[in-house]
Amino acid sequence: MTPIKFRAYDFGTGKFYFSNRVYDDHYFMFHDDTLNCFGEDYKCSPVEMFTGFLDEDETEIYAGDIISFRVDCFVVDWQYRGCVVFTGQRFQLWNKPDNEYYGSDGGFDLDWICYQDDTLKIVGNIHQNPELIEEGK
Known about the structure:
The chain has one helix at 110-116; strands at residues 6-10, 15-19, 21-24, 27-29, 35-37, 48-54, 60-62, 65-73, 76-86, 91-94, 108-109, 121-125. A hairpin with a 4-residue loop joins strand 1 and strand 2. The relative contact order is 0.17. It is built from 1 helix and 12 strands. 5% of the residues lie in helices and 45% in strands. The strands form 3 sheets. Strands 11-10-9-8-12 form a 5-stranded antiparallel beta sheet, with helices on one face. Strands 2-1-6-7 form a 4-stranded antiparallel beta sheet, with no helix packed on it. Strands 3-4-5 form a 3-stranded antiparallel beta sheet, with no helix packed on it.
């Protein structure tokens, strides 16, 4: 069974905070049952969910992580880099956090990528390394 975990990035401290309970997009419940607010005053990211998948280094993959991955296409392997986004139904890799399309290919489902690529690697996250998924990078 996949554990339910969450994280939020604090832009003030440059740290991630982790929890297994969340009240809504901006309230975190910590293990000692204290409630911590993440909102505009705190300059924190919205709460991001653990996907249930690990990269090649056994690092947990969360929404907001930037992933380098390979897509096998018969003769040629295509290398991509994208941001993990929860679409309301499933986790996908988009070429930018606000744009799901890689040209006409559409977004990639994370479970499909994890199934077919054993070299999936977290290379950063959208909060600390947004330049990693800029055009031409």
